[in-house]
Amino acid sequence: MDQPVDPYQFSFPYDAPPPPPPAPAPRRRGPRLVAVGTAVAVVVAAGAGGFAFGRHHDGNGSAVGSTHGFADQGNGGTTPFEGSPFNGPGGPGGAPFGSGTSGTPATTDQLTGLVRISATLKYQGGRAAGTGMILTSDGEVITNHHVVEGATRIRVTVMDTKQKYAATVVGIDSKDDVAVLQLSNASGLQTVTTDTSAASVGDAVTAVGDAGGSTSSFNSAPGKVTATGQHITTHSQDSSRTEKLHGLIEISSDVISGDSGGATYDAQGAVIGMTTAASSGNNDVVGYAIPIGTVLSIAGDLEQGAQNARYEYGTPAFLGVGLSGTGTRVADVFPGTPAASAGVTAGATITALNGTPVRTAAALRQAVTTYSPGDSVTLTWTDLAGSTHSATMTLIDGPVA
Prior knowledge:
Blueprint: E1 42-45, E2 54-57, E3 63-66, E4 69-70, E5 104-105, H1 108-111, E6 114-121, E7 126-134, E8 140-143, H2 145-148, E9 153-158, E10 164-173, E11 178-183, E12 204-209, E13 219-235, E14 242-251, E15 263-266, E16 271-279, E17 286-291, H3 292-304, E18 311-313, E19 317-323, E20 330-333, H4 338-342, E21 349-353, E22 356-357, H5 361-369, E23 376-382, E24 388-394, E25 396-397
Antiparallel strand pairs: 1-19, 2-3, 2-13, 3-16, 4-7, 5-13, 6-7, 6-9, 7-8, 8-11, 9-10, 10-11, 10-18, 12-13, 12-15, 13-14, 14-17, 15-16, 16-17, 19-20, 19-25, 21-22, 21-23, 23-24
């Protein structure tokens, strides 16, 4: 059986310019490369644990990877999600998911309503890149949750005009891998055309997105619908944590890193799905897209602020500590955060939040989720010498949950 792949690539230091995109070349099918980094810390932020970083297909056990580009500085793989170890390339250079080629340039019509998403991951020292689709003329954008997970800043480029916007997260559904963004001060944008009719096996499709992480163009990958109603299980390569996605469209298009959140078009040029994953089993690529009807339903809920255990809104509260393992021992304290200002240091053990004892990372995360950025809390911890400290701090905006 093929080994699980790690699709995260484009490794370069935080705030350094990305390397130039590779020269265009035909896509090709073949085995995927494996690159797994070991997590040494998790960062406590409000919100659910993040999207798992590897996948396998339920039916045949083939490896499946989410299809956005990820940048990691090689700093140990810190992730801003409690209990979800980061599986990155493990250092500069990384390894490509897919053949690393840029494919066939997308047409002008295919670019209409599509955006390139660039996310800065301050606390991980890297960047992520992916694709999104414009739903409204004033800048509502849909993408995969895993494209923006961990982001501390999001910038969006509208591909048909090259206009650039700052973006904020309206809401996320991490279980279904959907996020809704809002572009700042946007108006008059062209939107995608969608078709919520059920896809049929044999239908011609084309996946279009930021394949390979190009900063200036998008690319297309033709294929066919090979199955519908598919279920895949997501899993972290370094833990037993799993999540499931249901009801997906399986396509033969050769989707690669950067395509996540992009359009799966039908033969008439309407969006029938949002590309989200790809499998490398049996030395052949199989893509997966969330049906656009499912995506639009979730987006509608998130727009309206619907209450659902699967949904989260806005920016989570943040203490600014990274925990080692499943306990509350501090591995990292991030500069400029409340914990750093209060004097918490690496090696300390957090024991309570606002007087409520916390003994595990999960318990601390759950305690933080009851507060919002701007709220004041009292943190209690024990230092390496065994002395107990307490300090009142104001929570700040954290990375996207």
